[in-house]
Fold these 2 entries.
Entry 1:
Amino acid sequence: MPETLKLQINFSGGAELLFDKIKKHNIELPSVRKYLPDSKAEKWTIRELLVWIKGNLLKERPELFLQGDSVRPGILVLINDADWELFGELEYELQQNDNIMFISTLHGG
Amino acid sequence: MDLIELEKEVEELRRLLQKKENELCLLKQNLNIVSPVLDQNGSHSDTGVTGTETKGTLPKWAIERYSRQILVPEIGVKGQEKLMRGRVLIVGAGGLGCPAGVYLAGAGVGELGLVDYDAVDITNIHRQFLHGEKMQNISKADSAARSLRSINSRIKITAHNIQLSASNALEIASRYDVILDCSDNVPTRYLLNDVSVLTKIPLISGSALKMEGQLTIYGYREVDDKKKEPYTGPCYRCLFPSPPPPEAVGSCSANGVSGPVPGTIGCLQALEAIKLLVGRNRESLLVQRMLIFDGDDMTFRTVKLRSRNDRCAACSDNATLTELIDYEALCSMPANDKELDLHILPPEHRIGATELVQQMNKPGHLLVDVRSENEYQMCCIEGAVNYPIDKLEKMFEELMENISGASRVTFICRRGNDSQVAAKLAMEKIEKNREKIQDVEGGLHAWAKYIDRDFPVY
Ligand SMILES: [Zn+2]
């Protein structure tokens, strides 16, 4: 069992503007117990990933990305190209090489 | 003078032509040439020629005209008949509605409705190709309808020159079989979703901004008499129960859009409408799936969506929605993509464009343009320095240093909203002489209107 968890994080639909305008991020998460020693979390789930993103990737205006402990309305989260709702949303346990995508819905035409 | 005379004459002729075209169109409709009525058995009553009976169900002109798509097995003769009986409502005659309309008119969809409250503006034409230069300030629905009639005079095209709202949407939508969401704002998207749910009409929803587009079908209902509860796809509210915060919503007028991006999505909306009308099944349609197009790295991704949410306020068995509501209130946004005039600064810190000219002539005046670098490069007032609003945080110290050395500081942007935000930040930071900071009400639009007529308005 490797110590770190490698993931690809994608932002699109304008969500990338809050992340230095970079759409693709290859990240490596340390052990969750090391990163969040005060939390009861044993494994990385989307819930802890959002905390990590806030602390490490999010450059500005967190309220345009997060609301409470989840993403703000209008952002669709995809786990390996499928709606996170199909996998338990915040509770989904991240796996090695997962692709997590945050898409801001577009309204223009 | 000759030029002006000639332009006037052309304009007159154009008006006359439009009048005659409308007359012709009406006449044809009354004579039943347009959109031959196919009855339940598929037989047709066409041009009134008696004594000849073709073996098939489609008239000669239709076979010839639509042969290339009839040859496609997924469409075929049966499909063509369905298309000719089909009625599609296109909401928004803009970047998505234009390409969608062209392909649906071309395919011979029996009836097209076009909804748009807006008039053609020069900034539309790079992507909204049903509108020509001469159609500026004319209703977009009329302009689009006219162009589509020139593509296919055999179909019925109705222009609805209105702002779709809770008071008129159900009545209009109920005359159609499919709705295309080609709109440009959040309230209209929620409105159309609820219309689709209440009327059980499927909604093909497209959207585009900058270099990206999205497409899916909401409220799809399988027709299956054998099943007790035929499949129903998710609706917009199943995915997005609450609207996004207004400050997170981009628009084509504020953020820009490359023409072929809505062009691509609009074409695909037409394709899904054609497939839906000819009866392709849900595995083939973009149901419970979303297409995500990134024109910058040229990727198309089709992602899997959730199924219908059994707690959805609109479409579930426990739905609380029974009628249309006030969607501008729901979303805290107007149902258009025009920008609002904000009032952030106190009035004594706001000046007009004329006053700016006077102040610019005084020594020590600093003019700060807070638009994006891109916009600043497009056009700017001579002598203005550029501190883009979204880079202000990084450049703030440098700006404050500049400000401390100036006798007076004026912030300016395109329309006078961001300039207030930036001026307020500077006022909060500065310890004394707050009164020397101000912004230009109406921004560069006011500058172009009152001072420099040659300054581009965009
Ligand atoms: Zn729903």
Entry 2:
Amino acid sequence: MDFNLSSEHKMVQRMVRDFAQKEVAPVIKEWDRKQDMAPFVLPRMAELGILGVCIPVRYGGQGMDYITLGLVCEELEAIDSTLRVVMSVHMGLCCLGIFQLGTEEQKHEHLIPLARGEKIGAYGLTEPGVGSDPANISSTARLERDEYIINGEKMWISLATKAHTVLWFARTAPKGEIPHEGITAFILDTSLAGVTRGDIHGKLGVRAGSTGWINCQDVRLPMGNRLGEEGEGFKIAMSCLDNGRYTVGSGAVGLIRACIEASVSYANERHAFGRPISRFQLIQQKIAKMAQSYEAARLLNLQAGWMKNQGLRNTKETSLAKWFATDASFAAASEAIQVHGAYGYSDEYDVERFLRNARGGIIYEGSSEIQTLIQAGYALGLRDDSPLRCELPGYDPDDWQTGA
Amino acid sequence: MNIVVCVKQAPDTAATVTVQDGKVSWGDAPLVLNPWDEYAVEQALLTKEEHGGKITAISLGPEDAKEALKTALAMGVDEAILVSDPAFAGADTLVASKVLAAAISKVEAVDLIFFGRSAVDSDSGVLGAQVARRLGWPSLSLVAAVNNLSPEGGTIEVERMIDEGRQIVKGSLPVVVSVVKGINEPRYPSFMGIRKASRAEIPLWTAVDLGLTAVPSPAMTWPEIFAPLKIETKCEFIEGETPVVIAEKLADRLMEEKVI
Ligand SMILES: Cc1cc2nc3c(=O)[nH]c(=O)nc-3n(C[C@@H](O)[C@H](O)[C@H](O)COP(=O)(O)OP(=O)(O)OC[C@H]3O[C@@H](n4cnc5c(N)ncnc54)[C@H](O)[C@@H]3O)c2cc1C
Ligand SMILES: Cc1cc2nc3c(=O)[nH]c(=O)nc-3n(C[C@H](O)[C@H](O)[C@H](O)COP(=O)(O)OP(=O)(O)OC[C@H]3O[C@@H](n4cnc5c(N)ncnc54)[C@H](O)[C@@H]3O)c2cc1C
């Protein structure tokens, strides 16, 4: 067993860390307060190649592996969760979804501009009335000659107002005995007539990002924009989540790390009762707990990334990694505030933002309750991974980097 | 143009450096490309982008100095060479300059060599000048801008950052240029560069390869290194009824402390 990162991994880690620290960290509080995304973030991530990190070079990407994707998420979320959210929806859910399930034509038309960062991707599953049980969505798609007519509303969609391409899930058959059977996936172009959208303000966290709603009213989508087969949409949605959850979990590892760094430096500086508070065992305990969860969360996520590289099914491992890491990141942020005392309660320090941001991770991409049910299902033998028509391709460095 | 850039592997500046028993230690902090040398690499890349040519990065150091060279490759230099030999251990700048000059002489028809301002660890800041002396080339140090470079005319004009201001200096090629921070904004390595760097075979040149039969022993040693004494800072608030009273009290205190 080899726990070493390659020199390629380390160089990417450093590059992304430099970008996030030098360019985003100095202005993040300002944008968080404004509740808006800094306009340079997406173009800069595109320019640096981050938006195509783990897509083969021939599809416009950088040809790195899935571990690199996880490391990128860790570095980004160590500065701000909104940066990692970009990787979750654009890369994890949208790009990898098209990469896994799209036809060659769809990859050329849609994946290449996404991987190059010329276009931004998003994922539209949640609706105003349905989140945890997406089998019950009510958005519809009706086939009329060679076009689908899309109607419905999606809610809580990350990058709603920034995205050009949205994986959109809609019902092509009315709800029957087995509700998830009538769902189909589409590659929606947000510039089409009938698409309207907006951002939600007043969120607890990820304020320097975009989260919003998208509405489709009689949007005419060419048949070629259907991803996979009719009725396959639910499986596609779940399969995409295997990748989205990996980015959320890996990002949470970075958030825990940021909590440790902030807490260690503050605890060494702040004095109480005549000594640095880092000398009190109750403070040490908090930091030790963070260190413990950082290592465990990191290993769980690296395992999931390794399985992806090998082309192994990883629904169970990824769900576990996401569940553990996001719960732990919230706990770490809460304790980091405690270490900072009253100062932690103000936005003069980063830890209050960490807490607000960490809170989202235990809701989106399957809440912690849903991950608990999934794990219980596996443990009790009540759940089995049914094979997919197209599995996510494993990593092949030679194949992924040809055309470079 | 044939460009060489000399780079050193140095501890990450975020590392906590301690002194134990006269030896410097930065624990297990990662080793990186000397931050000052990022400017030298960037300047080499900018020069190549404008005038064409080839860039070779050279580092003298142990085997793991390859990582610094990989960073230079990932940023975009064409080739990298590691100069390493047990005989070079403990080298001072006189020895290092001899070895580097020998290595540079092995690279074909070099027109221009870039150095950083200094290495963040040993911080002598003289290696560029010494290498120039060994090669018999002009040395342009503390360069903050290259105003003009004519490969055809064989001339260069730079601005040197000196205490009194900026000094314009003209010189002829081949030349050694050591650059200061702020001459440019070093780029991040690109993914393409990272892929290339991680696969690159970095040749290793030993003393024998450089034709150095006898490596001189260092003229300088570091008999002792100690950490500077910690300065204790205390904060004192001067209070008073009016600004005038406060100012008077402040002036008294400053005189008491012999500050004014
Ligand atoms: C007693 C003593 C023991 C030493 N032991 C060792 C040892 O065991 N191993 C070891 O590697 N070094 C050792 N050194 C450092 C020695 O290699 C040189 O002193 C050093 O390389 C140059 O000095 P500097 O680091 O202060 O560079 P500076 O003169 O401050 O550097 C100026 C510029 O020169 C270039 N440069 C500096 N160093 C190198 C390099 N190594 N290769 C290519 N370009 C470079 C960079 O562009 C840098 O920005 C030792 C030095 C002393 C005095
Ligand atoms: C910042 C943010 C970004 C988001 N981005 C996206 C996006 O890009 N795309 C997208 O499609 N969606 C997105 N979402 C939506 C997110 O995935 C949903 O909020 C999530 O799936 C939960 O759904 P819900 O909010 O409707 O909660 P509900 O499903 O209404 O659940 C409410 C509560 O009940 C619990 N619960 C539900 N079912 C069970 C059960 N069977 N057993 C026990 N407890 C249960 C839940 O865990 C939760 O605590 C985002 C949400 C947020 C906050």
